[in-house]
Amino acid sequence: MPTDHNIGNLNVSIVRFEQPFEMIASLIALLTQSSVVHTIYLIDNSATDEPKFQSLPIQYIKNDHNIGFGRAHNIALKKSIDYNEKYHAVINPDIIFEPEILHKIVDFMQLNPTVGALMPKVFYPNGNLQYLCKLIPTPIDVFMKRFIPAQWSIKRMNIFQLRESGYDKILNVPYLSGCFMVLRIKALKEVGLFDERFFLYPEDIDLSRRIHEHYETIFFPQVSIFHAHEQGSYKNFKLFVIHVTNMIRYFNKWGWINDKKRKQINNQTLDQIYTYKKLNTP
């Protein structure tokens, strides 16, 4: 049965780091239009206080310094677990969407209890598609994406970003972007929250992977959002260093070369896509 939209069973957390009040307020206005949203948490990692946030219909949590993306979201995720909520959405501040998509997402997850995490289709503000469905990365994937010109790495990147899927069908994908991720609280109780050793960047890879080993982690193109996707580490040297440092931590955790589980999961994902393609080829 579809979800009763009069009952809010989805909590939301947004982590702020110096984004303007107007951006956050606009996102919260969208969220409050959906009756499935129960509590909105704004965790503020910014250096300066912004009293205006106290006026919004949210739970505002101000940290005294930037504690990182995953650790900040974990503050809210722990509350969702404590209050026995069913779903929790992790959403970036620079997101725009139609409020009714949250109903459709919750309905789908209610009807499919094997789904542990879900990401919608994501577009840039100009309407171009963001290729955010990915395999679990190898060190070579990360290096090529970062340092090798696109024309030399296009074949491998097309595979890594699962472009042959067409991004037009529901897929079980092992790496979903943390820009907009709806999580089943039951799954988090089993696999844990964001790994707080990662200050920024690979925490969504790590969590997606851990959930994927026990649940489906679904790309859901029936609904879509717009995401600015600033790619700060390509513009800011400090963020670049943070990105590299945390990717090293990620591969130290899971393995650089000898990661048999990664190979197995990625092969299963590619087999799924090739099967879809074969079945739909005239």
Euclidean distance between termini CA atoms: 35 Å
CATH architecture: Alpha-Beta Complex
Estimate the helix proportion, in percent.
25-40%
List the domain count as a whole number.
Answer: 1
Cα Rg: 18 Å
Low-pLDDT segments, ≥5 res: 1-6
Strand-residue proportion: 15-25%
Number of alpha- plus pi-helical segments: 9
What would you call the structural class?
Answer: alpha/beta
Q: So what's the CATH class?
A: Alpha Beta
Overall number of strands? 9
The name CATH uses for the topology is: Spore Coat Polysaccharide Biosynthesis Protein SpsA, Chain A
The average pLDDT score comes to 91
Biggest pleated-sheet summary: 9 strands, mixed
Question: Globular, elongated, flat, extended or rod-shaped: what is the shape?
Answer: globular
The H/E string reads EHEEHEEHEHHEEHHEHH
